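Hey L., structure's done. Input below.
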Amino acid sequence: MERHGDWVRMLGLRSAAEVQAFLSQVVSQPDEVRADRSRSSVKYLLKKLDDKLLCIVVVGNERARLGQAAAYVKGLLNTIEHPLHDYEKMVVLVATSKGVSRREIGRHRWADLMPMWNMGREGFEQLYEQIPGPKPDVEEAWRLTGGNPEMLANLHRAKWDVEAVAAQLARAKGITAGFVEKWGRLLREAVEDPDALWSAEGEELASELEARNLIVYNMYDRSEKLWIDQPPPEKDPELGIGKRVAWQTPLHREAVRRALEEAAA
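Output:
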């Protein structure tokens, strides 16, 4: 918020939650969508604001998988420093949920990273209230998702079938029988306490889980100045959050737990 105060004030937004809601609205209902001619994974969503035009750039996940995250962000930086046209203001916001991309980008001197965790409890409850039809109580929804809106949406689409969502996550993240067999003991310890990975023995498995986007490794200090919006708690075993390592959501941890149970059956 503080870093982009002029931009936020121009839009009349007062909090990080309002910024997030506004960006979501632009992405879901843009005035115009333009595709990048040379990169099919990149789209430009335009929103008219009186005499100004706001552009949000959406980049597909495949760029990060190809190891091009740092090159792409540096390209955006070059666009700001050496624009092809005159602009009154230009702000570029880039977000990724992948720890691998964070490492790749963060090692450069021109990078300035700020983490953003899942939704806070108050905002999550407001989102939960908008969901129609039968649903578990808000405490159960919070316990399953840890405040992650995508996981809440996945549960709603699956008619609140936790097993189905966990199974889909396990498939998508490559939690195979061979993977479970290879890392069995350490994996079980990480399910109980993700900080078990914060050791020389756990580092290799941590890299594997981070590459699958199952955990966040080397968590930032919880000072609010270092985070966008509300940081996660220092430690919350119920949600799978440790001091140094955290599961992306409780459902990500549940997917691994169920894979371990199947392997042991």
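The chain has twelve helices and five strands. Residues 1-7, 62-66 have pLDDT under 50 and may be disordered.

-- N.
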